[in-house]
Amino acid sequence: TGVGLAGVGVSFRRWSSRLAVAAADPRWVGQVSWWAGVRNTPDPLLGARVLDPGSDTVARARHLTLRLPVGVTRGLLTTVPTVFHGQVNDGLLTGLVLALGWWRRQWWPDAGSVVVLDLEGHGRDEGLAGGVLSGTVGWFTSMFPVRLDPGPVDWAEVEAAGPGLGLAVKRVKEQLRAVPDNGIGYGLLRYLNPDTGRELDTGRDPQVVFNYLGRVNAPRGQGWLIAEESEVLGQTSRRDLGAAHSLEVNAITHDLPDGPQLSVTWTWIDGVFTEPQINDLAHAWFQTLHALTEHAQHDNAG
Q1: Which of 215, 226, 246, 277 makes an SS bond possible with 253, Cβ 3.0 to 4.6 Å?
Q2: Burial grade of 276 (CB within 10 A; 0-12, 13-18, 19 or more)
Q3: Is residue 66 helix, strand or coil?
Q4: Per-residue pLDDT tens over the stretch 58-101
Q5: What is the reported pTM?
Q6: Inter-residue contact 280 to 68 (CB < 8 Å)
Q7: What is the mean pLDDT of the chain?
Q8: At what angle are helices 163-177 and 88-104 packed, to 10 degrees?
């Protein structure tokens, strides 16, 4: 018997047309001052130099993939969101901005705790589409800058899994909730509206982009798992394209036979960072995630 497929609710062409129309809608235009405030946040240089998209192409990118232990991953997916009444991204991003702040102070000792980075998301906003997108084939994505401040958490507090970690999670969670409409409006205003686009074009984008792709379930007993070569995420076949960020952090959770495991691929431009520097940052992030799951088990956490 044949398989019946439901009709497409919204075509990708219709979706694209609706984006162009929405960019001039007062609902979205009213967000421009909020986004301008984020874009104008100071972002001290990371690494040896500013990214040059002309010469810093995808061909110059290097990759490092690390995996978090199953026990820690399970805590990040369950205990931490439950204790702090939040989402998985709250814990992941709190750990990342704490690690980035520590790492950045190697170049800028007086740098504060604020971190600016791009967040990438799935971009399937059915409210904006005016219909169901589950049957639409196409590359949906959203990317928008965020200003995250976990507060002045001393690194000794991280190592001790102390109460400062809990306060940091609460701050970051609330800052993420304050992003208008999960960030979908930024791309409209930045790229599809000439007037607001000029206001948001500050000449320098965030240096770091983070993307959590969620959880991949491999059916148990089916005799297959995600191929190892698929671990390097976010690559493109066009190696001559200019890199958009000095550093990309792509994370995904795989359901393995012994439990969930977070896999993180770090992609950086050779000449901006060195592999030992990225190793330091990657392990600092994992250290904060270890500490966060430990802190979440304390009686007074949350």
Answers
A1: 215
A2: exposed
A3: strand
A4: 888 999 999 999 999 999 999 999 999 999 999 999 999 999 99
A5: 0.89
A6: no
A7: 87
A8: 110
